[in-house]
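Hallway conversation turned thread

IA: we were arguing at lunch whether anyone had actually written out Bifunctional chorismate mutase/prephenate dehydratase end to end. Turns out nobody had. So, for the record, here is the sequence (355 residues) and right after it the structure tokens. Reply here if something looks off.
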Amino acid sequence: MDQLGKLREEIDDLDERILELLNRRAKVAMEIGHLKKVLRKPFYVPSRERAIFERLRSINPGPFPSDAIDTVFREIISASLSLEYPMKVVYLGPKATFTHVAALQKFGKLAQLAACKSISSVFDEVASGRALYGVVPIENSNEGAVTHTLDMFLESDLKIIEEHYLEISHDLLVNDGELGDVRRIYSHPQALDQCRRWIEDHLPHAQQVVVTSTARAAQIVADEPNSAAIASRHAANLYKLRVLESNIQDNHENYTRFLVIGRDLLEPTGHDRTSILFGFKDRPGVLGEMLEPFKNRSLNLMKIESRPIKKKAWEYVFFLDIEGHVEDGPIKEAIKELDSFATLLKVLGSFRRAR
Ligand SMILES: C=C(O[C@@H]1C=C(C(=O)O)C=C[C@H]1O)C(=O)O
């Protein structure tokens, strides 16, 4: 046998050993799945998955690229999870939205991913138990909060179980033609805002049409001449569109934070973030007083956001993110103190910080 043939035989032999190990791993994961059912513990444990990725990266001797570890093990873990429990995950669709990309990165290709038409239907599907988890956007580093998601937490009892950051890069997609042929630009309002200056400089006369998602824009443009969509490369591939211009967002530091929502309360990981919402009766100085329980315990507040309560004009709720887990002594005490004078208080979840 020539040298190439011998090396290929060696690869076949190694692949068989990898396959055998994958099956042994799958059997252990199934055993863990049975145990979790008995102990009534959540099947999906993002902090454990993160620890696996981090450990393998740190011990990888190479030359297998460390960047490929996340991709390969994402699918191995996703396959194990599908054996533990056939897990349905819903996301804000249609296919090829940035939320879909986030869901794929979190759950892998083997999870049963299903698109929902709106953020509220993602919440409904999870609350009703038809899906185990949901993925929704919560804020963009340039445009701020996704207010529809914040508002849903007022009505819903679902918990945040994970956060995920995605770098957002917008492309201008067309079916055919050149920049001079574009009369209409379709996209989600946030995407149009994020590319405002680029549009003014390059397509000042094009009509801007707001649609429900960047993926929906790509879907429309696939059938409409003289139009362009601002969407992801992922959408270009799915709807077979041509990328006319890439990276057209005005600020190249453009990230969106997504949340995985579910029904589980997660255990502390030592690197957590807690989200709460609270309301109070308006009077001078009250907001400062509401934050004092945190200040007095030197707790780090990571973010505060207010939203109007729709039921009553000019009344607000505040969304607060605190560094730490709700089971940590000082946070538990601060929340208890806040609860004694708040008119409304809800813990939205404690989850491992992604950064
Ligand atoms: C096997 C487990 O369940 C799931 C699958 C994992 C895996 O395949 O390694 C890791 C975490 C969980 O999301 C576990 O909890 O350890």
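OS: looked through it. The first helix runs from residue 3 to 39.
IA: good, adding that to the notes. The mean pLDDT is 94.
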